[in-house]
Design goal:
The chain has 252 residues and is α+β, with helices and mostly antiparallel strands. The chain has 5 helices and 17 strands.
Length: 252
């Protein structure tokens, strides 16, 4: 088994990379059987984005803080752990954002696509699902669409629902909604096409963020699941992603 070890810029992650490469050898990512990512959840997302075109699955080892998308860090027995690891396949969201200046920007998001107000004034956003207007005007700080894998991140902080893996559901969650005051969002079939139209975009500017890509002054944002792109992550059986997402709903 050929390993490619990639690490975050922290001293802890870099030291771990040196030790693992010395013990198991290092192969360039495009020639490796498995890419081992050393860092935190943020670095794991960076690694998934960086190697979207590679066929090798990614096995994360936690050298950060929370480590929700990562396995526990141990140097011994790495080949055996990877051999028995469970594979999870994720499909990212594709965002197409149109700006006030006539620019169109595309980006992929593994966790979520979020719209956020840029100024002191609340944003006003019209929400359409599959070309049908579902909410004429949402007055809010923002709104997001998340995958199941991303449902425990920003979505959960915004009081959105945690979504089980394999449910083929996307989360639609408002961020600090003012009107309608009691709207808490929706759960959508993963095949849904979501369109956000920013109302009064010059007066109430809004930015769109797809993981690491931010687009300022948007007027429309289209979001759909990109089934043509598959991301493969490996988890130890005792720490699989489905079990972690379930546990998050009973954490206190």
């Amino acid at each position: 088994m050929k390993f490619a070890f990639v690490a975050a810029k922290t001293a802890e992650a870099r030291t771990a990379r040196i030790g693992l490469a010395k013990r198991y050898g290092h192969t360039p990512p495009h020639k490796a059987d498995v890419i081992v990512a050393l860092g935190g959840d943020g670095f794991m997302l960076e690694t998934l984005h960086r190697y979207i075109g590679e066929s090798a699955p990614i096995y994360g080892l936690n050298r950060g803080t929370v480590g929700f998308l990562l396995n526990e860090y141990h140097i011994p027995g790495l080949p055996e752990r990877i051999a028995r690891a469970e594979r999870v396949t994720l499909h990212p969201l594709r965002m197409v954002a149109e700006t006030l200046h006539g620019k169109s920007v595309e980006a992929l998001a593994i966790n979520e696509v979020s719209l956020l107000r840029e100024s002191r004034q609340a944003s006003k956003i019209c929400i359409s699902i599959d070309e049908r207007v579902r909410l004429k005007e949402l007055i809010c700080d923002g709104v997001l669409v998340c995958t199941a894998a991303g449902s425990t991140a920003y979505n959960f902080s915004a009081h959105g629902s945690i979504i089980p893996m394999g449910s083929n559901i996307l989360g639609l969650t408002p961020i600090s909604a003012f009107r309608p005051r009691h709207w808490r969002g929706a759960l959508l079939p993963s095949k849904s096409n979501v369109m956000f139209e920013v109302l009064e975009p010059s007066k109430r500017p809004v930015s769109a963020v797809a993981d690491f890509t931010e687009v300022r002054d948007v007027k429309r944002v289209y979001i759909s699941e990109e089934r043509g792109v598959s991301l493969h992550i490996l988890f130890d059986p005792e720490h699989n992603l489905e079990e972690r997402i379930l546990n998050e709903q009973f954490w206190s």
